[in-house]
Amino acid sequence: MIDVLKNRKLLSLITGIVVFIFIVAYGMHMLSSERKELKLLKEQQKEMLILKDEFLSLRQRIGLVEGRKNLSNTQGIAQAVDEVFSSVGLRDKVKTVKSAGKRELKEGTEEDADISIEKVSMNELVNIFYKIENAPMILTIKKATIKKSFENPELLNITLSLSFLKTK
């Protein structure tokens, strides 16, 4: 009878150890899967932070463009070109402003023009690009051709295709 009790105690102890081992194994498996899920969530968080930064940057750029379109009362591309080149002091170097067409868009009217500028220095060219980029209206350079002047190789002849967007 004592043998039976000892065997029973031993059997209970072995059963308890086996159950404990299964519980520990199950816990380790759960811990491993939770770590994998945590790693995936951290990767998703990094992606979302990158997207958030891109979104905020784009929203800021949109705000700048939206603010610029309401700053000016410019009626057409000829007036816009005149304002830009007058502010730089190069109005007399603009040889031609040819209208290249007008298109109606959802946001407003887009007006294109080809502008020819002669005998401009590199510094003046940089000033022109700066003024176009920071003009209080929506001006876009679609194409720029820069050639050396025939009379003086240090000066440049420039042909620009500009686009002016006037909102409704």
Which key phrases capture this entry?
alpha+beta; 28% strand; 4 strands; single chain; 4-stranded antiparallel beta sheet; 2 domains; Alpha-Beta Plaits
Provide a quick synopsis of the model.
This protein is an alpha+beta fold.
Q: What's the helix-strand series?
A: HHEEHEE
The CATH topology assignment of the largest domain is Alpha-Beta Plaits
Total of DSSP H or I helical runs spanning 4+ residues: 3
Tell me the CATH superfamily of the largest domain. Ribosomal protein S6/Translation elongation factor EF1B
Number of domains: 2
- Main sheet summary: 4 strands, antiparallel
Number of distinct beta strands: 4
Strand ordering within the main sheet = 1-2-4-3
Helix content: 40-55%
What CATH first level of the largest domain would be assigned?
Alpha Beta
Strand content: 25-35%
